[in-house]
Amino acid sequence: IPVDPFDLVIFGGTGDLAQRKILPGLFRRYCSGQMPVDARIIGAARSEHDSAEYRAFAAQAIREFSGGRRCEDGTLDDFLNRLEYVTIDARGTDGWEQLASLMRDGVVRAFYFSVAPALFGDLAQRIHEHGMATEESRIVVEKPFGHDLASARALNRTLATHFDESQIYRIDHYLGKETVQNLMAVRFGNMLFEPLWNSQYVDHIQITVAETVGVGGRGEYYDKSGAMRDMMQNHLMQLLCLIAMEPPAKFDPDAVRDEKLKVIRALDPVLPHHIVRGQYGAQDGEHPSYREAVGNPRTRTESYIALKTHISNWRWAGTPFYLRTGKRLKARSSVINVLFKDTPHSIFGEEAGRHANLLTIRLQPNEGITLQVTIKEPGPGGMRLIDVPLDMTFSDALGPEEADFPDAYERLIMDVIRGNQTLFMRGDEVEAAWAWTDPIIAGWEARNDVPKPYDSGSAGPTDAEMLIQRDNRNWRGIT
Ligand code: NAD
After folding, report:
1. Is residue 273 flagged as an active site residue?
2. CATH fold of 175-405+425-469, please?
C-alpha cells in the first residue's frame, strides 16, 4: 500500500549512512510501489553539488548497496528524478532559503538528521526559523542519542523546544528488523508462549550481538564511546525490553513504549563482578588490534561487553538475563535465546537424556525463530530422547517472495511517513537507559578499570565464559 506523498529532506545526504542505507532503502520501496510517484527526496549537505551530481551519486549508491533488487526497466531513472540537492550549512545561513522554497504544501514533510549529533540542535532551530516545520512535520534522529544521561536530557530538551514528542522519531534500526516485530507477534499472537513467559518456567535469557568486523574507519568516534554506549545502552536494551515487557493493551506506539520503559526502570544495577569488558587483539598480522585501529595505545575503551542483570518485577524476579556484544568475534550473529527450565521429573529415566526447551530468535544472519522440542529418537532403540527444532524460518515458511522483507531502514522510513512511532524510541526510554548505564561507566572510571584482552576471531574474553559458567550455564550461539 503506497504511503502518502512526502518531501523527505536528508540532512547529511552525501554521508556514509545515506549512501549505504537511506538512498538504497528508499529506492527499494520505490521499486515495490510503496513510495508514491510524486514523493520527493532532497539531499542536503555541506559539500557543493547540483541535483544532477546528486542523482549520479545516488545511482552509484543504489547500484552498490541495494542488494540486487530487480526492478522494471526505467524505474531507477524515475526514482532519480524524485531527487534534488541543496548545499547547506547546518550552522550557517547557506542554503536554507533555497531549501525552504522547495518544500511543498499539503504533503508529509520529514527531516532526516543523518549528521553528527552535535548538529541536531542547529538543524531543529534552523528548520523552525525558516518556517519549514508544520504540525505534521517529522524529524528522524540517528544514534547516538546522547553520551550519557545529562547529554541525552539536554538533547531531548533542545528538540522539544521546536518539536513535539509525537514528531520525533529516534531510530534504533534493530527495531526495524522483521524478526524483532515477529517476536511481538509470537509472544502476543499465540496462547502457547505467554503463560510460560516468566521466572517460573524460564531458566534464563541470553542476548548476543556479535560482530566480526572491527572499528574500521569509525575509530575516533568509537574510542569515545565503547561497546556499552554504542551497543548495550541502545540495541541490546531495546531487545531486552521487547523480550521482557508485559503485554501492552494494544499495539499502539505509546502503549508499547510505556511497557518497554517499565522494563528499563525495573532493571537492577549491575554489580561489578557481573560485568566483563574486553578489548580485541591483532590477528595474523592482517587485522590491527583495537588499540592500533583507534590509534591510542593506552585506550581503556571496551570493544566487548558481557553482563548479567535482573529485572525486579513479578514476572522476572530471579531470572538472570545475560547480555553480550563485541567486535572482531568469531561469527556475525545477533540472537536471543530463551532457555526454559527442565521438566520437573523424567518419566523415561535419566538414561533417556534430559532436555529443556529452547526458543531461539535470530536477527541476523538468516532471520527466523526456532523452538527446540524433545521427541523420541526414531527407530527401535527404545525410549531415547532427542531435540528437534520447530523451524519458523521465514524463507522456508513463506516462500522466497514474501521472505524478501525490507531492510530495517526501509521499513522505518516508511513508518515515519505513515506517522507510526511504535518502532522508535521515546525520549523517556532513552533517558531511562542512560540512567541505568551511567553508574556502570562511572564505576569503571572510578576503578580505572582495564578491559580484558581477547583474541580477534574468538568468542570473547575467557572471563565472559566464567561469568555464565559460574552459574552452571553456557553461552549459546557463538561459543
Ligand atoms: P558521514 O560523516 O559519512 O556524513 C556526514 C554528513 O553530514 C555529510 O553528508 C556531510 O556533508 C554532512 N555535514 C557535515 N557537517 C555539516 C554541516 N555543518 N552542515 C550540513 N551538513 C553537514 O556520517 P554518517 O556515517 O553518514 O553518519 C550520519 C549520522 O548517522 C551520525 O549521527 C552517525 O552517528 C549516524 N549513524 C551512522 C551509521 C553508519 O553506518 N554510517 C550507523 C548508525 C548511525
Report:
1. no
2. Dihydrodipicolinate Reductase; domain 2 (3.30.360)
CA 171 – ligand 1 centroid, Å: 14
Residue 380, all three cell numbers: 527401535
- Cβ of residue 309 lying under 6 Å from some atom of ligand 1: no
Give the global pTM. 0.95
218 C-alpha vs ligand 1 centroid, how far in Å? 12
Residue-range domain boundaries for the chain = 6-142, 175-405+425-469
**Could you say which of 162, 204, 235, 310 is catalytic?**
235
Digit-coded pLDDT (tens) for 46-68: 999 999 999 999 999 999 988 76
Amino acid identity for residue 113 in this structure: F
ipTM above 0.85, yes or no: yes
Q: Using CA atoms, how far apart are residues 414 and 96, in angstroms rounded to an integer?
A: 25
Candidates 150, 109, 287; CA nearest to 212 is 287
Total number of residues shown for the chain: 479
363: which DSSP letter?
E
Question: What is the tens place of the pLDDT at every residue in 107-159?
Answer: 999 999 999 999 999 999 999 999 999 988 999 999 999 999 999 999 999 99
Q: Grid coordinates in use for 276?
A: 566483563
CA distance 70 to 399: 17
Architecture of domain 6-142: 3-Layer(aba) Sandwich (3.40)
Centre of ligand 1 from the C-alpha of residue 11, in Å: 8
| Per-residue model confidence as pLDDT tens digits over 263-273 | 999 999 999 99
C-beta of 117 in contact with ligand 1 (< 6 A) = yes
Q: What is the CA 477 to chain-centroid distance, rounded?
A: 18
Cis bond upstream, residue 320 (ω within 30): no
Residue 42 has pLDDT above 90, yes or no: yes
